[in-house]
Each structure stands twice: as C-alpha cells, then as structure tokens.
Amino acid sequence: MTSRRLSRVALVTGAASGIGRRAAEKLALEQGARVYVLDRDAQAADIVARGINEAGGSAASCVLDLADGARILQSLPSLTTKFGPPDILVNNAGISAMVPAMDCSLEHWQTMVAVNLTAPMLLMQYALPHMRAGGWGRIVNISSISGLRAGTGRTAYGTSKAGLIAMTRQFAVEVASWGVTVNSIAPGPVDTPLALANHSTETRSTYLDMVPMRRYGTPDEIADGILFLCSEQASYVTGQTLAIDGGFVAAGILVHDLYDKPPASTRPAVVEQTP
Questions:
Q1: DSSP string of 253-264?
Q2: Is residue 271 domain-resident?
Q3: E strand or H helix that includes residue 97
Q4: Which of 157, 207, 216, 259 is catalytic?
Q5: Within-domain flag for 83
Q6: Is 272 part of a structural domain of the chain?
Q7: Helix 106-113 vs helix 155-175: angle between axes, to the nearest 10 degrees?
C-alpha cells in the first residue's frame, strides 16, 4: 500500500447505513483511506466506525444534522480534527418523500433543499481549500435518477437532486485545474433503508417493470461506482453524472414481453391504390 493511499482522508455523509455505509467501509478497507463516518444517528455511526476499525481500517464517527446549514459551518472544523480535513468527500446523505406537487409545503421544500443541495455545497466549500493546497481531491455527490427524469410525487426531491447534478458541473469546471475532480452518481432504485421506508409494494412492482434488469440495485453496486470516481483511474473524469440504475434512464417505452407476443399478422399490410 503506497504512502499516498495511506495519506488520504475521506468524509462520507449519511454513512451509518445503506450506500454511505458501504462506501465508507470500502474506502477504508479497500483504498486505505482514513474515514469520517458522518451521520445524524450517533449510535449507528459509532457501530460503522467501530466495525471498520476492528476490520483493520481507520475510522471516526461524526454526528451532524445536515438540515442546519449554520451548524454545518460551525461544526466541521472540530469534527475533522482526528485525521485532518478530507481530500475525498462523498456527499451521500439525503432525504426523500413522495408528495404531490400541489401539496408541496414550504417547510417540506426548504428541508429537502437544505439537506440534499445546500449541505453538499457547504461541505464542498469546506473541503476544497485543503484539496487545492494538496493538489489532489475527489468529490462524489450522490444524486438520483429522479434528478435526471421527472416522477410522480418528486417535485421537491427530484428538483433538489437535479440541482445537485447541476452544482456538480459548476464546481467541477471551477476546480479542475487544482487536480480536483467533482462527479455525481445517480442511483436507480436501490435496496436501502430509505427505499424500504418510501417504496410500497406497488411502487417496487412498478420499478421492476421499468428497470430493464428487473431488480433493485444493491448498496455495494453503488459503492463500487463511488470507489472508481475516488480512484486514480478516474483522474480525467470530472463534471459527469454516472447513472447506476440497471438501465432505467436508457429505457424509453419498455415492454418486457414484447417479442413473446404473437404478431398481429405475418403478412405485410396491403395498401389499395386508386387508379
């Protein structure tokens, strides 16, 4: 393991479960990074950090409510004293809810934007001076296919995730000359605690019909994409959004059994022409 790999410090938000947890574990145990496990659930974050340390990695848990922008700015310097500021940042934390567009309250909108869009901006602004000084950095923002395609009940959530994709590009072009890359991942439906809480049996069935692979993704599959974008192999990739979605975004009209149905006619249509 090289000294450069040992010197990396990663901060992963929403790292107490799901995609964030697997990203934190893989960054620590597969890439040798020292990892901050940041989450609002102190007990769950401690469990993840302890598991990483017991497996031979280095991790520290951090507790922070990302809905409070002022608190983020005040807390980050003290939260990152153990390993120093991060040169890998994974903005994974997010909240979701299905609310009809006409019923989207101001409070719901502001909370969704605060966590899904404003918090990532503040975290990037905190980490980037350190990355610039070191001439190296990786930022991965976890967006969603809802940021690429509209969906029922996703006015606040989808808009916040579309904003995150746009902000990823904005930061990417401004920091590219510093040796820092900024990219986004747009997961499709993934078996995470958030999906389990928001996806009814009917919703899951609908997704299975819309995803060409006909299954939900796993946190490991998304975490592997994060690891790639945080690696040296992705050094010339910036400002991009990688959809890890089983083909959802690529699909238009999707009829799984189209070719199993008997054709209406085996003969070409005859068009009568008048003289």
A1: S--TTGGGSPPS
A2: no
A3: none
A4: 157
A5: yes
A6: no
A7: 30
